[in-house]
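Final paragraph of the annual report: two paired records, presented back to back.
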Amino acid sequence: MKPAKIPVSVLVVIYTPQLEVLLLERADRPGFWQSVTGSKDHIDEDLQLTAQREVLEETGIVCQDFRLSDWQVSNVYEIYPVWRHRYAPGVTHNTEYVFGLCVPAPSSVRLSEREHVGYQWLPYQLAADRCFSASNAEAILQLPQRFER
């Protein structure tokens, strides 16, 4: 049996200077599109390392080749009931930390087949509209202001 997931995760918005955003389609919920997400593997794992690991696992992109930035934003949200069985009994909320990864241009990615079945690069407004997660959509909509910094 797998150990319970830690209710601390990262959300990594991967985007280009033209504000095109990479979205991934979940394997366990076709039609659910999102940015890279994932939980800490262990409680002491550094969030930056969690973000780097998740991006590599889900897309094959090596973060050290680009600019990964901690947006200093966190969201606490209720875990969807369909996924609560992955956590310890009684855990209902997750804290998500938001990162951005700027890459020079849209490119092919290597999907983790057990997690995702498709990907697409979209202009940021369309990407935000396609996300099933409100916090993911909100992070994407912040791109124009964040990219100017």
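The closing record of the year follows.
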Amino acid sequence: MGALLVHAVTRPALRVLLWLVALTVVATRMCDLPRRVLRLDFSIFYSTAAALRRGLNPYTCDLRPIAAQFHMDIGQLIHTNSPPTFLLMFEPLARLPPRAAYWTWFAVSAAAFVAAAILLLRDRDSALDRAQTQVFAALMLLYMPTSVHLIFAQAQFVILMLLVVMMRGLRRGNDLLAGGAFALAAALRAFPFVMAAYLIVKRRWRALLFGALAFAAIELITLAALGWPIFSSFIRFALRAPADITDINVRQPSDASLFPFITRVFWHVFGLGLGPLLNRVRALTTVAAELGVIALAVRATLREPANRDSDSRAFGLWIAVMLLVSPITWIHYFVLLLVPFHAIASSSAAGRCPRGAIWVALASYVVMLLAPGFHYSSRTLNGYVLYSPKAEFAFVALALALVASLLSVNAAPIAADSAATARGASAEPA
């Protein structure tokens, strides 16, 4: 059945149709972008950069008056939560008018996505043939989080590119490149720090050392540029944020990591007013779940034989782990799952992982099509979105991505004749 599906979707006519749909979706999103210039999330980035240019501390000052001067909507946000290095790198855009800054940022973000796609799709180690690669490229554009990322003008395309560079550097033995990409990703958005666990489990000590040195250098430059008051304000925020269950973000079903998901489950079962005991149980449950996910990934990674294909699958597994254990994982973060999806597709085409992995990955992809309706499936109380089982499409999709990655890592290869049949069935002329 898998071979027939691959054969069907790689037929020239269906490839053309798939690309027409993908380009139509992208064109539709592009038409919406001019209306997004003054709205989230670009609005909070620009307001923060403008505050920096005025010598203000964007972690403590009220950004609403600044946003109002530019007629920007920053919603209920008052302060920024982006790391200082991201603020420093974004600050030059505040020298431009909002519209020019928006399109400059869009160009940088789009270029990062294209670079990541090229690095993934033109990988010499990939087992995908040309037709399959074309299908995967179209699916990258059709992936719902890609559209969400475009709408909110977020920064995860840059992180996607850096993680792909890190993966390629590790596979080519270029520890300096891998460590530098890892350090910059962690400095820009913080949550990629989890990938240090992958380096430790794989015993890539040189890459970890280069990453640590590069990160220290980046942070020293940031500290010198922004000053200690701003730097220390972010440190205090970062230490407080993971335990803050009063944050309105935790109530949103589009925040799909384990911490907010488990918190919403507790609210649904016990109500919003969790007492001290239930709060401790909730916290312990979250820690246990996160440690369990990490333990599964460590076990699978240690048992995986060392080769470029298995390293790609293990790297993709840790990206899924990273998103699950991060304190915040919005839907646009899911563009990072394109890395494990590509690794699974390539290994499946080569007969190196079970068909179940590709089917579960496909299920994760399809479930995300349902996620835009999460607010309509949620209950509200005093304007706050509360937990509803029907609203958790994003968490289900992320959990499925983890399962697919676990299935792909350290699994018995498909029989050679079956893999050959699948590849032969998909070998259509481009």
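Residues 245-430 form one domain. This concludes the annual technical report; the extension proposal builds directly on these records.
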